[in-house]
Amino acid sequence: MSQSTVAKRYTQALFETAKDANIVNEVSADLAEFSKVLAGTPELLTLLSAPKVSVERKKQMISELFAGAQPAVINVLALLVERKRFNEVTDVVVEFDRLADDAKGVAKATVFSTRALTDEEHAEISAAFAKRVNKDSLIIDNVIDESLIGGIRVQIGNDIFDSSVKGKLARLENTLIG
């Protein structure tokens, strides 16, 4: 997913601030909570983006609603409001999550399989595929897809590793038909 240049700049500044203060996990948790609040009340995003509401009132609402959050998070949210860039906030949350994962040597992966994976399979897949994308480990989201017939398909970012029976049959068909 492509993020805007503006969101990347705000996120990079927030990440550097959090890293310097050694609060990356806390900022990440605050942003995750903020994201949940936005998902649960989409009117909040509309309100904080509304031109009829003054910038000062919006900043006051952010301060009151997220009083327990890290000051760096509140400052970035206030800055987005001030610069009329609050529509970039979801991209900032996603990009910060990616930067935090990169710093930890972790990547998110979606593993498609015909059945739920066991803990042992999770560990084996994480170890095997993390090396392929130069990470220490993977956070795996297992999706059941019975159309695969057998095997697994692993998606890590834009990379797809397909060792499913369905994928092998499709590749064989392409080879035979041309």
UniProtKB/TrEMBL annotation:
GO terms for cellular component: plasma membrane; proton-transporting ATP synthase complex. Keywords: ATP synthesis, Cell membrane, CF(1), Hydrogen ion transport, Ion transport, Membrane, Transport. The keyword Amino-acid biosynthesis does not apply. It comes from the Bacteria. GO terms for molecular function: proton-transporting ATP synthase activity, rotational mechanism. It holds the Pfam family OSCP. It is found in: Cell membrane; Membrane. Its main location: membrane. SUPFAM superfamilies: N-terminal domain of the delta subunit of the F1F0-ATP synthase. It is a peripheral membrane protein. The keyword Magnesium does not apply. InterPro entries: ATP_synth_OSCP/delta_N_sf (IPR026015), ATPase_OSCP/d_CS (IPR020781), ATPase_OSCP/dsu (IPR000711). Belongs to the ATPase delta chain family. This protein is part of the stalk that links CF(0) to CF(1). It either transmits conformational changes from CF(0) to CF(1) or is implicated in proton conduction. This is ATP synthase subunit delta. It comes from Caryophanon tenue. The lineage of its organism: Bacteria, Bacillati, Bacillota, Bacilli, Bacillales. The gene is atpH.
